[in-house]
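Q: Okay, next protein. This is Apolipoprotein N-acyltransferase from bioreactor metagenome. I've checked the sequence twice, so it should be correct. Can you predict the 3D structure?
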Amino acid sequence: MATIQHSADTWKGGYATYKNNFNILRRMSLEALGSDPDIILWSETAFVPSVAWHENYPSDPATSALVEEFVAFGKSLPIPLVTGNPEGVIDDPSLPPLLSDGSWNRKDYNTVIFFEDGKIKNTYRKQHLVPFTEHFPYEKQLPLLYNILLANDYNWWEKGHEPVVFETEEGVKFSTPICFEDVFGYLNAGFVASGADVIVNMTNDGWSKAVSAEVQHLALAVFRSIENRRTTVRGTNSGMTCVIDVTGKIVDPMEPFKVGWHIYDVPVFTSEAHGFTFYTRHVDWFAFLTIYLSIFLLAGSSLYRLYLFFSRRK
């Protein structure tokens, strides 16, 4: 797998940034092709604008041309391209794309697209959104604050509702938790239980501007490989791009905040050959058991103390 690290914040700068990022990603991908990878991996929202939306509803000529350039590049590749890309879809099917007030009848998802032969073959929509940056959980309760944040160009996403398992022509099955989704055990266990043989995390941590933030995120991701007995590949825009083996060992991390690419040989552990771990099958059952047991012991201890207290007063 060829991982491309373009070390740029995707959302800063508008069209000029989108175009420059695409040029870097394309150049790095073509260089990596010389090492004969089976698949090319970009990071979370590496390519903006939305391919799905602008293919169906072209508007701005420059933006539409950039999407056409991306599609042509993807079609020219001899292998699949997996990239983060915002997905725009019609919000109300009964209304036209462009409403009478000049706004778009559109909702957006933070997605990963599996792009092959010039087409989007499959899409995964992020399920666990970041509160207050990717979605606002109290829109109805705090409409004033919601509108203030909206006016300050916050990007609100719709929530995905199901795990998706991609599959290559060689039969390798993988799922793509987006950004901090790789810190949630239940989500990744769900991917593996649905058939994923590899976990491919796609992250944009470039906003942090700090190596410490990249390392902290990586440290949490390590547990997903151990819990599920599956290799994790991390494809990031700024770090930490690497492979995590099933013992939690971090393999060949790329230097953070540097432009480059790396070819990783990815060990594949299939459910047919290696089965599912206890954690994959039961997720946080043991953790909940310890919580309930602690509550039971605390309640029992309190009742016993009350019993002793009243016994002494007799």
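A: Here is a summary of the prediction. DSSP finds nine helices and twelve strands in the chain. Residues 285-314 form one domain.
Q: Noted. On to the next one.
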